[in-house]
Amino acid sequence: MTEIKSDTFQFLKQLSGNNNREWFIEHKKQHDFAREDVLQFVSKIIRGLSEIDNQIPADLNAKDCVMRIYRDIRFSKDKTPYKTNFGAHISPKGKNINGPGYYLHISPSECFVAGGCWMPPADQLKSIRQEIDYNGADLRQILAKPGFKKFYTGLDSTEKLKTTPKGYPADHPEIELLKLKSFTLSHSIASKELEGPDAVKKVLDAFAQLYPFIAFLRNALA
Question: Which residues, 6 or more positions from 6, have their beta carbon under 8 angstroms from its beta carbon?
């Protein structure tokens, strides 16, 4: 089987309506089955992605990529103890990302693939902006390819400076890219597609189009 089981989505849906410790303990076995289902799926994604991106080890353990379902509520107003999704960060070091990586989000209400650098630290942000300054045309070429545009409409501009970044003129040809504080892209996938026989292929097709963007960011941080 190469797809996410419907039982996994059903567990997450039930958890969303019963997000408390008592219910979770009573249904822990369902969680364990669902997590194992996701781990097997992500293992197939890792093996396929390693053929697209040679910096992803084919033997990378899915357990090092799939996030735990327990929420960190120490500094959050939302005290519900569990996430209502499964998420997997895939990079050369799994979820211990220090640079660009790939992401898979699995939820009954929203499934998507994504990738890039989310809110990179100041030194990385400076390097990415410098790469855009020097080689912005290369990035534009990646973003303009028809195959790429089939999956991704453009960089997420939610986190963005209102003014120009220090050291760059307002009339810089890539000023809108330089204002970004995150460099990420995402592509939605219907949950029904992840339950279908082509689920692994659909995720890998999206990651394959994302790879040149990941490579651009890696080069910026090299």
Answer: 195
Helices first, then strands: H and E counts in the chain: 8, 4
- SS3 category, 52: helix
Enter the tokens of residue 140.
């534009």
Contact 86, 103 (CB under 8 A): no
Rounded to two decimals, what is the model's pTM? 0.94
Instruction: Give burial (CB, 10 Å; 0-12/13-18/19+) of 89.
Output: buried
- Contact predicate 117/194, CB 8 Å: no
At 183-198, the pLDDT tens digits run 999 999 999 999 999 9
Residues 6+ apart with CB under 8 A from 76: none
Average pLDDT over residues 126-150: 96
Side chain identity at residue 14, one-letter code:
Q
